[in-house]
Amino acid sequence: MREALAEAHRDGAWLAAGPIRPGIRLRADDDILRIGNAAGEAHPIVGEGMSMALQSAWLLCAHLLASTPQDATNRASHRALAARYAAEWRGHFAQRLVVAATFAHLAMRPGSAWPLMALARQWPALLTAGARLSGKHRCAVDIRS
Predict the structure, then answer these.
(1) For residue 41, what is the enclosing H or E element?
(2) Better pLDDT: 39 or 45
(3) In which band, very low, low, confident or very high, does the pLDDT at 141 lie, cut at 50, 70 and 90?
(4) Where do the H-state alpha helices sit in the chain?
C-alpha cells in the first residue's frame, strides 16, 4: 500500500459521511421495511457496507415480489412479510456484524492488533478464513435467476 500511495495526495478538504454506528436496526414488528445501513450496519473493517445494502434490497424485493398487491394494504399481511424479511435478513447478515465488530475491537487494541497483523502476514489465507467466518462469501439471494 505504501508503494501504491507514495505519490498520492489529498485533493481538497477531508470529507466524511458521519459517525459509524454498527448494529442491527431492523425489527420484525417495524412498519418500515429497511435496507442498507437503515437495516443494519457492519463495521467497515470487513468492507461489507455496499454489498449488504445491495443484497438487502434484493432480498426485500424477493419478498415483495412473492407477496400480493393486497398484502401492501393488509396490516397483518404486511407485518408477516416484515417478520419473514427480518428473520431472513438476520440469517444472512447478523453473523457479519458480529465478526466485523470482533475484528474491529481486536484491531483497535495494540496488544491484539500487532499479533493479528503478524499472523495475516505469515498466513494470508487467514483473511479468506475470516471472510468465510463472517459469511461474506455467501450471497443473500440467488443471483442466477
Answers:
(1) strand 40-41
(2) 39
(3) low
(4) 36-39, 49-65, 69-73, 75-107, 110-122, 125-134
> How many Cβ atoms from other residues are within 10 Å of residue 137's Cβ?
9
C-alpha to C-alpha distance for 92 and 101, rounded to whole angstroms: 16
Distances (CA, A) of 131 to 1, 24, 97, 128, 140: 20, 19, 12, 5, 15
Phi first, then psi, for residue 40 (nearest 5°) are 180, 150
Phi, psi of 101 (to 5 degrees): -65, -40
pTM of the predicted protein model: 0.74
58 is written with which cell numbers? 434484493
> Which residue carries 416484515 as its cell?
82
**Residues 71, 81 contacting (CB under 8 angstroms):** yes
Residues 6 or more apart in contact with residue 130 via CB below 8 angstroms: 46, 99, 103
